[in-house]
Amino acid sequence: MNKAELRKKYKALRLELSEEKIEAFSLEIANQLLQLPVWEKEFYHLFLSIAKQKEIDTENILHILQGKDKNVVLSKTNIKDHKLEHFLLTDSSVIRKNRWNIPEPEGGIPIAPAQIDVVFVPLLAFDEQGHRIGYGKGFYDNFLSECKADVVKIGLSFFEAEPEFKEVFSSDIPLDYCVTPNKIYSFKN
């Protein structure tokens, strides 16, 4: 299957999930994350879920990060430039949904991509080599290309890996890990 077909397949699979399944799978993924060797880091970038798209609910991950007193970074979408702007989550942060229903900070303390140690990456599908398929706009590939070389990239998926993607481009940045409700995939050499 090509990327367009895989996007369609995994969007359909997600739409079949009940709210109860999403809640249970999201909690299992958060619990699996505790096994990764990333908890000594300082700045963690987290996406806030688009409930309408039946994305993984990242609220449990947010609670883990806050419980460990970590710096949480959220993004605001710049549609014109296909870029993300990053802000530190604080007690005074205001989160609002943009016109695409993406929860975003209205502003705040800016954080440069080079400051971020760990990025939790949204995706629709991934393969056994660590390549991911997102919504196809390139926001995360652009963002990850601006991060430091040793940033830890962790995909979150309800579903297991595809064997291999046929279409992989030089601009596609592979994951270091992908966490599902049942398994942790490691792509680090």
From TrEMBL:
<feature type="binding site">
    <location>
        <begin position="3"/>
        <end position="7"/>
    </location>
    <ligand>
        <name>ATP</name>
    </ligand>
</feature>
<feature type="binding site">
    <location>
        <position position="50"/>
    </location>
    <ligand>
        <name>substrate</name>
    </ligand>
</feature>
<dbReference type="InterPro" id="IPR024185">
    <property type="entry name" value="FTHF_cligase-like_sf"/>
</dbReference>
<dbReference type="GO" id="GO:0030272">
    <property type="term" value="F:5-formyltetrahydrofolate cyclo-ligase activity"/>
</dbReference>
<dbReference type="InterPro" id="IPR037171">
    <property type="entry name" value="NagB/RpiA_transferase-like"/>
</dbReference>
<feature type="binding site">
    <location>
        <begin position="132"/>
        <end position="140"/>
    </location>
    <ligand>
        <name>ATP</name>
    </ligand>
</feature>
<dbReference type="Pfam" id="PF01812">
    <property type="entry name" value="5-FTHF_cyc-lig"/>
</dbReference>
<dbReference type="GO" id="GO:0035999">
    <property type="term" value="P:tetrahydrofolate interconversion"/>
</dbReference>
<keyword id="KW-0479">Metal-binding</keyword>
<keyword id="KW-0436">Ligase</keyword>
<dbReference type="GO" id="GO:0009396">
    <property type="term" value="P:folic acid-containing compound biosynthetic process"/>
</dbReference>
<feature type="binding site">
    <location>
        <position position="55"/>
    </location>
    <ligand>
        <name>substrate</name>
    </ligand>
</feature>
<keyword id="KW-0460">Magnesium</keyword>
<dbReference type="GO" id="GO:0005524">
    <property type="term" value="F:ATP binding"/>
</dbReference>
<comment type="similarity">
    <text>Belongs to the 5-formyltetrahydrofolate cyclo-ligase family.</text>
</comment>
<dbReference type="GO" id="GO:0046872">
    <property type="term" value="F:metal ion binding"/>
</dbReference>
<keyword id="KW-0067">ATP-binding</keyword>
<protein>
    <recommendedName>
        <fullName>5-formyltetrahydrofolate cyclo-ligase</fullName>
        <ecNumber>6.3.3.2</ecNumber>
    </recommendedName>
</protein>
<dbReference type="InterPro" id="IPR002698">
    <property type="entry name" value="FTHF_cligase"/>
</dbReference>
<keyword id="KW-0547">Nucleotide-binding</keyword>
